[in-house]
Each structure stands twice: as structure tokens, then as C-alpha cells.
């Protein structure tokens, strides 16, 4: 029987997968068109950084999320603290955000690496600046298919120019009817610029099952907006 510590880690991993299921599904659909894998070596996204040419200890999860998994056993005092060291580098020329704390993080200078000690329920996961992540709301959700139509939260991680983009691909998740790009599948594009977020439809003019966006969160800003208006001026 699994310990409570293991059960907690498994539960957290499942919740993170549910959080990101729209990002994962949308990226995989793009993979079917471009052949770019979901899990990518660092040199695939950052070919000009020679330190990543032979790195196997971290990878890009799609184009927007960097993951440096825990690949060594905890040593010394960390073993008793349920913590583990991870060494990684954040590519230069990009803005980065810690996925857990949402704090902005500096890129790692050439020739340098960062080593952090992380607790059980935290991984070295960083969101690339310039990203809009669609997060599925899933409180008390029994399965992904039962909740795939739930509300979304848009998480916006601006780049150095305060811009961000993202996409959301939708279909029924089970049939081959997605080939009907007008009525049975859709792709929404999100764009954040100058403090405004806009959406456009790449395809799916007759698609009926768009999820509701219940909240939008912008990270890396100094203060809350004084006024929020929708396209209707409300």
C-alpha cells in the first residue's frame, strides 16, 4: 500500500495534468501538422545556445514550458527533509516565470547553471514569457472527459515587451469528426498586447462547444488595472 506521501505526490501530478490538459491537447494537435514533438530537446527551441546541445537533464514541454525533472536521489539532509536538488539553466533572451509561485525569474547567464532544492510537490517548471496558458477548472472532477467543457482560466505570462500569445484547440476528444474544421473542431488564438487581450478564430465557424473563460490572470505586472472592459464596453 502506498504511503500518504506517495499518494499526495500522485494526486498533485494528476491535478497538474488536468490543469494543463488544454495546453497539452492543443500542442499535440499542432504536432500532427508540424511533426514537432510535445517533449522537445532544448536545442530544438534554442539552437544558438551551445550549452544545450548535449543536455539530457531538462527539456521543453511544447514551446512554452521548460521542465527540469528530478533525476537523482536525495542526499544528506535533503533526504530527511523530503527535498531533492535539481540543476538547470533558463535560456537567455527570454522572460521566465516559476510555474508554481508565478514569480518572474531571470534567465541564466551563459556558462552558468542553477541548483535548487525542491520539495516533493514542486518541480523545476518554468513558463516562457510571451505565453497564454488555457487552464481547465476541475474542482471535484472525476475524469478529464467529464470536465473537458468546464470553464477556463487564462494565465498570461508577458514577455519583456508585455506581449503574449496562445492557442486553444477543441474537438469532441473521441471521434474522427474533427476533420470537419468548420463544425466539429476549432482553434482559438489568444493575443495579449498593451494590457488588452483579444481572441480570434483560426477555424471552427460553426463549432458549438466553446468553454467559458471565467477568469483571466496576468503575471509579472506591477499593479492591478484600474478599469477592466469587455468588447461590449462593460
SSE layout and pairings?
Blueprint: H1 4-19, H2 21-34, E1 39-41, H3 42-45, E2 59-61, E3 65-68, H4 77-80, E4 83-88, E5 96-98, E6 104-105, E7 114-119, E8 124-128, E9 131-136, H5 144-147, E10 152-157, E11 163-170, E12 186-193, E13 196-203, E14 213-218
Parallel strand pairs: 10-14
Antiparallel strand pairs: 1-2, 2-3, 3-8, 4-7, 5-6, 5-8, 9-10, 11-12, 12-13
Give short descriptive properties of this protein:
single chain, 5 helices, 234 residues, Immunoglobulin-like, six-stranded antiparallel beta sheet, alpha+beta
Description:
This protein is α+β, with helices and mostly antiparallel strands and 234 residues long. The chain folds into 2 domains: 92 residues, Immunoglobulin-like (Sandwich); 87 residues, Immunoglobulin-like. Helix content is 18%, strand content 32%. It has 5 helices and 14 strands. The strands form 4 sheets. A 6-stranded antiparallel beta sheet has the order 1-2-3-8-5-6. Strand 2 and strand 3 form a beta hairpin. The chain is globular. The termini are far apart. The relative contact order is 0.13. The mean pLDDT is 93.
Please give the number of β-strands: 14
Q: Structural class, from secondary structure content?
A: alpha+beta
In DSSP terms (H or I, runs of 4 or more residues), the helix count works out at 5
Helix and strand run: HHEHEEHEEEEEEHEEEEE
Give the tally of structural domains.
Answer: 2
Percent helix, as a range, is 10-25%
**Overall pLDDT level:** 93
Tell me the CATH topology of the largest domain.
Immunoglobulin-like
| Low-confidence runs | none
Q: What is the makeup of the main sheet?
A: 6 strands, antiparallel
Strand content: 25-35%
CATH class of the largest domain: Mainly Beta
The CATH H-level superfamily of the largest domain is Golgi alpha-mannosidase II
The second-level CATH architecture of the largest domain is Sandwich
Terminus-to-terminus distance: 54 Å
Shape: globular
Strand adjacency order, main sheet: 1-2-3-8-5-6
Report Rg: 19 Å
Amino acid at each position: 500500500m502506498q504511503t500518504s506521501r506517495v499518494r499526495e505526490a500522485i494526486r498533485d501530478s494528476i491535478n497538474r495534468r488536468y490543469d494543463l490538459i488544454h495546453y497539452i491537447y492543443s500542442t499535440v494537435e499542432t504536432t500532427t501538422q508540424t511533426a514537432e514533438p510535445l517533449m522537445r530537446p532544448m536545442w530544438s527551441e534554442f539552437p544558438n545556445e551551445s550549452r544545450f546541445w548535449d543536455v539530457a537533464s531538462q527539456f521543453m514541454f511544447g514551446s512554452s514550458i521548460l521542465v527540469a525533472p528530478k533525476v537523482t536521489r536525495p542526499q544528506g539532509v535533503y533526504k530527511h527533509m523530503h527535498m531533492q536538488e535539481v540543476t538547470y539553466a533558463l535560456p537567455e533572451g527570454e522572460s521566465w516565470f516559476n510555474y508554481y509561485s508565478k514569480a518572474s525569474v531571470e534567465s541564466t547567464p551563459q556558462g552558468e547553471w542553477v541548483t535548487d532544492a525542491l520539495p516533493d510537490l514542486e518541480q523545476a517548471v518554468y513558463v516562457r514569457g510571451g505565453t497564454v496558458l488555457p487552464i481547465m477548472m476541475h474542482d471535484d472532477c472525476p475524469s478529464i472527459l467529464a470536465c473537458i467543457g468546464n470553464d477556463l482560466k487564462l494565465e498570461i505570462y508577458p514577455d519583456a515587451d508585455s506581449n503574449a500569445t496562445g492557442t486553444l484547440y477543441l474537438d469532441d476528444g473521441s471521434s474522427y469528426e474533427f476533420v470537419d474544421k468548420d463544425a466539429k473542431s476549432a482553434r482559438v488564438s489568444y493575443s495579449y498586447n498593451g494590457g488588452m487581450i483579444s481572441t480570434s478564430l483560426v477555424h471552427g465557424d460553426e463549432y458549438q462547444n466553446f468553454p467559458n473563460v471565467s477568469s483571466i490572470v496576468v503575471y509579472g505586472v506591477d499593479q492591478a488595472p484600474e478599469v477592466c472592459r469587455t468588447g461590449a464596453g462593460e
